[in-house]
Amino acid sequence: MRALALLGMGFLAITAWAVFTLPTGTAAADPASDLLAQVQASYAKAPHLAARFEQTVELVTFGTKKTTTGKLYVAKPGRFRFDYDPPRKSAKSKSFIYDGNTLWVVDPANQQVVKNTVANSQLPVAIALWTGTADLTKQFTVTLPERNVLELVPRQPSAAFAKLRLVIDGATVKQSIVIDNNGNTNMFTFSSVDANTKIDGKFFEFDPRRVPTYRVVDVDPGLSRPPTPKKDSRPVGDFPTRDFPPP
Q1: Lesser CB count within 10 Å: N end or C end of the chain?
Q2: Quick one: DSSP state of residue 94?
Q3: 168: which strand partners?
Q4: In this predicted model, which residue has the larger pLDDT, 213 or 18?
Q5: Contacts of residue 132, Cβ cutoff 8 Å, sequence gap at least 6
């Protein structure tokens, strides 16, 4: 499940967006917390967000570096969707869709859908940060090692990552970089951020019947084996759906 491990790093890398959903409070006394408060305040009122992203994952252990691009959509409270750009025109794009309860990883290249019951998964902290249900200042030590760079270190040691760095441009997050305990990095660079867009809630929903030929893998540890896809399911549209595209 290496893809899910990288996804976990991805969620942490975009923790920058989690501050958009946290309630605005009184300005903090120290510069680092004050800058974090400014960032969260700049996005606190936006019910929907959309942005382009460039993701670069560097694995020092394997000596590999890979860059992908795509678009990210957020709807409060606690829903999001990543649509990666396809590797070529004729290919279908890979997507990660979180409807508030279940994370769906739709992978056309491998003809499969991974269903991740978030409450029982290995990513609860990342999801909590992403949906804004966690208090960053309580879970992380926040410092300002460089001008306009916030560094968040978990107060409790984490096997998933060592630190998170947020590069701030004005009062918005330009980059977020996760560094794990092995020195691997996962960096997201955001552009074309749109806080005024309106997105239909159905854009964050997914039904496996849309891809009846795909294998469905349920990673809920409470299940002894993945469920078998129903052979008699009728297609209700291809994926990614274009029934409810954002404007």
Answers
A1: C
A2: P
A3: 173
A4: 213
A5: 18, 19, 20, 21, 22, 76, 77, 78
